[in-house]
């Protein structure tokens, strides 16, 4: 059975005051059986790590450099993020792919860098609205997944997380139906299995992201290949994020 995971991506939002407001409600509900990962802007990572201490909450970065060290002004390596208390790092979010020109190979290199330094990469994949309307979803997802598989050895697959985020559903209020998302998640699972991951590949969490809210979380989580969520805007409202997490606790079969 695949592992389950719910992650909050604050994007470029928040403040020290907001960290202190949002973290306690999440820490109070977080359970070891369903990892709850908070990914704030990098400047707030030490604060969030301190607030998450002595709870089941885990901490993730919103990006990680593909390089381990060097003349890369403004970058933060996976090793540095580990020192700040991170267990996870989001890589390849569509806002970086399409806004900052990150390529499939760059995203794959970032995932590999995370694995080298003991971080779990949350690898984002997904199609744009134009690609969706052109019927290219399967081709785009396959290309993005295979780029990662070219860099990550089969035995390390179990240490990764994938997040399917249809770009047309991010921040738009639109969301793929549970059935649409399930179809793509099933294809991702098949690609991971075909890559040689075997039984281990079946344990890789495949999250859904794209206007996840308290109102649609349970129906998404009920799908057999949706293992959790990467939550954007809703994660900035404590009650909404708690409700999404509670939907996971209530819906998933947890160890």
UniProtKB/TrEMBL annotation:
It comes from the Bacteria. Involved in the gluconeogenesis. Catalyzes stereospecifically the conversion of dihydroxyacetone phosphate (DHAP) to D-glyceraldehyde-3-phosphate (G3P). NCBIfam families: tim. InterPro entries: Aldolase_TIM (IPR013785), TIM_sf (IPR035990), TrioseP_Isoase_bac/euk (IPR022896), Triosephosphate_isomerase (IPR000652), Triosephosphate_isomerase_AS (IPR020861). One of its GO terms (molecular function) is triose-phosphate isomerase activity. Belongs to the triosephosphate isomerase family. The keyword Transcription does not apply. GO terms for cellular component: cytosol. Pathway: Carbohydrate metabolism; erythritol degradation; Carbohydrate degradation; glycolysis; D-glyceraldehyde 3-phosphate from glycerone phosphate: step 1/1; Carbohydrate biosynthesis; gluconeogenesis. This is Triosephosphate isomerase. GO terms for biological process: gluconeogenesis; glyceraldehyde-3-phosphate biosynthetic process; glycerol catabolic process; glycolytic process. It holds the Pfam family TIM. The gene is tpiA. Keywords: Cytoplasm, Gluconeogenesis, Glycolysis, Isomerase. It catalyses: D-glyceraldehyde 3-phosphate = dihydroxyacetone phosphate. Substrate binds at residues 9-11, 171, 211, 232-233. The active site is at 93 (electrophile), 165 (proton acceptor). Homodimer.
């Amino acid at each position: 059975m695949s592992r389950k995971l719910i992650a909050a991506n604050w994007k470029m939002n928040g403040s020290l005051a907001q960290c202190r407001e949002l973290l306690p409600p999440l820490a109070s509900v977080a359970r070891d059986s369903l990892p709850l990962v908070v990914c704030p802007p990098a400047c707030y990572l030490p604060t969030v790590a301190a607030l998450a201490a002595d709870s089941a909450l885990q901490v993730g970065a919103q990006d990680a450099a593909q390089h381990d060290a060097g003349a890369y002004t403004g970058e933060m390596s996976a090793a540095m993020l580990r020192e700040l208390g991170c267990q996870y790092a989001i890589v390849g979010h569509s806002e970086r792919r399409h806004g900052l020109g990150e390529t499939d190979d760059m995203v794959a290199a970032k995932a590999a860098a995370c694995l080298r330094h003991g971080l779990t990469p949350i690898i984002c994949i997904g199609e744009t609205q134009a690609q969706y309307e052109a019927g290219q979803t399967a081709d785009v997802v396959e290309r993005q997944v295979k780029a990662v598989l070219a860099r990550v050895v089969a035995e390390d697959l179990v240490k990764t997380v994938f997040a399917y985020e249809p770009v047309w559903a991010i921040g738009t209020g639109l969301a793929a139906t549970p059935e649409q998302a399930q179809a793509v998640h099933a294809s991702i699972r098949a690609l991971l299995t075909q890559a040689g991951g075997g039984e281990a590949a079946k344990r890789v969490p495949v999250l859904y992201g794209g206007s996840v809210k308290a109102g649609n979380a349970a129906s998404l989580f009920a799908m057999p290949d949706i293992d959790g969520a990467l939550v954007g805007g809703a994660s900035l409202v404590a009650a909404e994020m708690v409700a999404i997490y509670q939907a996971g606790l209530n819906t998933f079969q947890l160890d």
